[in-house]
Amino acid sequence: xxxxxxxxxxxxxxxxxxxxxxxxxxxxxxxxxxxxxxxxxxxxxxxxxxxxxxxxxxxxxxxxxxxxxxxxxxxxxxxxxxxxxxxxxxxxxxxxxxxxxxxxxxxxxxxxxxxxxxxxxxxxxxxxxxxxxxxxxxxxxxxxxxxxxxxxxxxxxxxxxxxxxxxxxxxxxxxxxxxxxxxxxxxxxxxxxxxxxxxxxxxxxxxxxxxxxxxxxxxxxxxxxxxxxxxxxxxxxxxxxxxxxxxxxx
Length: 250
What we know:
- The chain is an alpha/beta fold.
- The protein has helices spanning 45-52, 70-80, 96-106, 111-124, 140-150, 170-185, 197-203, 221-227, 234-242, and strands at 3-12, 22-30, 34-38, 60-65, 81-84, 158-162, 189-193, 206-211, 214-219.
- The relative contact order is 0.17.
């Protein structure tokens, strides 16, 4: 099986913190995976993805993406990854099409191809008739769909998603998941965080459950369910591994 990402003994401790946000994580993510990184609030999910996508540097440890090292080949890595953050990475006073044309140009997509890619992508996401509307006028679901397009116009080989369906209606969620599944069929490896456990159970090919920066379990959704006593679904597994304690963060 060809690997997209290999991670060895990855650690992250923020300045003035007593604890590691990511604590000795080692993982292998295969080329065709839809890999879910699941955990409670504060478990280290966003920190973990932020390191892999180059937004922050690890304290120690190493990883490669498609055989490339971030220390030596970061420019090449940036060309093959896509990042869709939980917060909207869009310009609210620009239209949907203006936003996507701008991000597409940053990826180096030639103008004559970019117009068609943007128009086709907006149609796929049900946003074609709103292409010339300012993003600040969009509903949460519309912004979320446009946000996803902004991170995938260049057909990345590896896509990092942080809560891609948070706060959206059922219809938007369905369109987003179907779009991502199609991206995966076309060769994009997906690394995904979510609090929607039923969604992750259906969507992910493999899952790592983390808490306090450490991995507690790895496997396919069905493997994790079958290995956990009295578990009927992924939510039961999650509670068994991470407990019922509230994880409120201020």
